[in-house]
Amino acid sequence: MQRYAKLVIFGKPGSGKTTLLKHLANQCIQGTFQPDRLPIFISLRYLDPKNQQPGQTLFKGIQHNLEPCQLSEGEVKQLLQKGQCLILLDGLDEVAQLVKADILTEIRYFTVEYYNNYFVITSRLTSQSKEPKPTAVDPPIFAGGRYFCPR
Fold first, then answer.
1. Where along the chain do its domains lie?
2. Distance between CA atoms of 74 and 12, rounded to whole angstroms?
3. How many other C-beta atoms lie within 10 A of the C-beta of residue 118?
4. 56, 90, 101, 126: most buried by Cβ count inside 10 Å?
5. For the whole model, what pTM was predicted?
6. Sign of dihedral through CA atoms 33, 22, 134, 45?
7. Is the separation of the CB atoms in 58 and 46 below 8 Å?
8. In CATH, what class is 6-148?
9. How far apart (Å, rounded) are the C-alpha atoms in residues 50 and 69?
10. Which one is predicted more confidently, 137 or 29?
């Protein structure tokens, strides 16, 4: 994961996708994975993109998660602009169908606007068949990203 700034991880239900993201956040805090970045964990299903400008839904989610740090909006924006964040987006498959296209647009916008940050997204596979069929990759979530489907 050190090699890719943008990564999507697909897996079956209960395969440990959320646990992996939390592990990455802890490793980041402990300084053994992306030690110069601030980990930010967001459950995508709680984001509401209604009536938001592009980039604002994720920004507000990040700002909300950083409230205990008492950072101003300007300080959060500065962290993002400098590429000092490890943004962990959990559960793309759990986003309501009504807003999924908006959330995908939001992610694409955000990963372009704040391209110096590292992004990891998790999602379930859409099928229980032997051949994995990732969700939400046509069109790709972000250009230049890597997709990982464990077998």
1. 6-148
2. 39
3. 22
4. 90
5. 0.83
6. negative
7. no
8. alpha beta
9. 27
10. 29
Residue carrying the six token digits 């939001």: 106
Give residue 72's pLDDT: 92
- What pLDDT does 148 receive? 53
Sequence-distant (6+) residues with CB within 8 A of 68 are: none
Q: Evaluate if residue 73 carries a pLDDT over 60.
A: yes
Residue with tokens 């046509």: 138
First to last CA, the chain: 18
**By three-state DSSP, how is residue 136 classified?**
coil
Show the tokens assigned to 62. Answer: 């990040």
CA geometry: angle 36, 40, 45, nearest 5 deg: 160
Count other Cβ atoms within 10 Å, centred on residue 142: 20
CB atoms within 10 A of CB 133: 12
Helix axes 56-65, 73-81, angle to 10 degrees: 110
Q: Is the pLDDT of residue 149 over 60?
A: no
Helices (H), the chain: 17-30, 56-65, 73-81, 97-113
